[in-house]
Amino acid sequence: MTIIALVWLIAVCGFSTTSAEESSLKAHSLDDGLVRTPPMGWYPWNQFGQEPQNEQLIKEIADALVNSGMHDVGYSFVGPDEGICFSRDSNNELVTNQKRYPSGLRGIGDYIHKKGLKYALYTDAGTLTCSNAMPGTKGYEFEDMKQFAKWRCDYVKIDWCNTDGQDIIKTYTKLHDAQHAAGRPIVHSLCSWGEGEPWKWAASVGHLWRTTGDICGPGRADWELAVTIAFENEKLYKWAGPGYWNDPDMLVVGMDGLSESQNRSLFSLWCMMASPLIAGNDLRNMSASTIQILTNIEAIGVNQDPLGIQGHIVRSAGNVSIWAGKPLYDGSQAVLVFNQQSSPADVRIEWSDIGIDKKDALYVRNLWTHKTSGPHTDGISVPVNANDVVMLRISKTNKFPLPPIIVADSYLVSLRATDTTAQSLSATITISNKGSDDLPLWKVHKELPGWLTVTVSKNGNKQTLTNTISTSGLKKGLYHAIVRADNTEPVSGKPISAVYYDVELEVSGTK
Ligand code: GLA
């Protein structure tokens, strides 16, 4: 085994170095409670490209998200990318491509919501999408955002193709205003591949922004490219925080072209960088090792940490880098050692490398072997295999709690009254916290229509939101409300991601 004589190249950067520009960005980040921790989900592009995106594929993937256990550890957003799912009709309205999506874009959204998942769509800020196969939003920003709201979309990726002559800041600001006017909380994922340096301004108009070009061509991962992208994204670590994220593109974990250790390395890098965990592989067909990597809750706990700090390189020599600068909500720290060499390395992490007093006696948790050792003073030496990582959590105590990881059984309550006589109907949504700290009761926002009341009760790590509907005084028709509930994470007292869900009521009959 090679002993690497690591040379200090980069000093630990404190978070106190925040510039006025960065502070202003933080002050202006959206305060809508959406994606306060990095979004988790799946998008089709990396594996499939445009074909064969259709209703059947999206439904099968939504089923696989649940059946594989991925939903249980927090993955929720799912839907078509540039999958030719809508066109613009002669009235300039967006309409579903019924051939590919026979249930309609609202129908598939309902399917996704009933499974406890969130609905993602794709559009473009220019005249057409990247392959020119679908209309872009240019000139129809307000109408299109209204249609996305009607389809009950929760997340929209907005590409930057065919935008000649458009001002990037004005365009994405208009799209944000349009979404706001449409009245539905929707995560805006900006996709300009780093063009216009969105990290400097986009926190006030969106929730995440691509920092680099595409991570692969459809169907096959490219290890060198994925690593290059990770290192590009790393440099921007000061620009991310709760509700505004640097996005180095969807994951390639589990795709052809990568070994198990490469999959583990990329997943760990994305977790350390608080990057969105949007899987891009075929979830219907995963090896046991891919599932185990994508569902490693201890690594996900680092990614979903409520402080939302993006880790970065604190030391590197040759092809070995140490990533730290990621304090976690319980006072522990995440540390990653990444060995890009084709031979193993023994790497020494000194406590002083990661800003800790060398006399401190610390426990070390390995997040891939799930073993704790210590206490250690001064530092620790770790063997790291070729093209592999060692991912650690370092703490003064030997307890390594998981932050809140919120999973709902459904995001859609549908009720029906068969006539107009006064009736009381009720249905529940159950929200589980897969983390290990207790959460206070969810607080329901007051702005509910008169026909709906929501109460919250708790049983262990599950909380039930009971939705009671009174049809008294209601006429025949369809009624709809969006419920928002907030919680606070245990340490900072700030809200973790708010939970939004739809309640719909049909009052039918003639009486
Ligand atoms: C761009 C994006 C990709 C994907 C394609 C669709 O290249 O970066 O992620 O959405 O468009 O054409």
Q: Would you give an account of this structure?
A:
- By secondary structure, the chain is α/β, with parallel strands linked by helices.
- The chain is built from ten helices and 27 strands.
- The strands form six sheets. Strands 10-9-8-7-6-3-2-11 form an eight-stranded parallel β-sheet. It has a six-stranded antiparallel β-sheet with strand order 12-13-14-19-16-17, covered by helices on one side. The protein has a four-stranded antiparallel β-sheet with strand order 20-22-25-24, with no helix packed on it.
- β24 and β25 form a beta hairpin.
- α5 (141-150) packs across α6 (168-182) and α8 runs parallel beside α9.
- It is globular and about 75 Å long.
- The model is unreliable at 1-17 (pLDDT under 50).
- Bound molecules: alpha-D-galactopyranose.
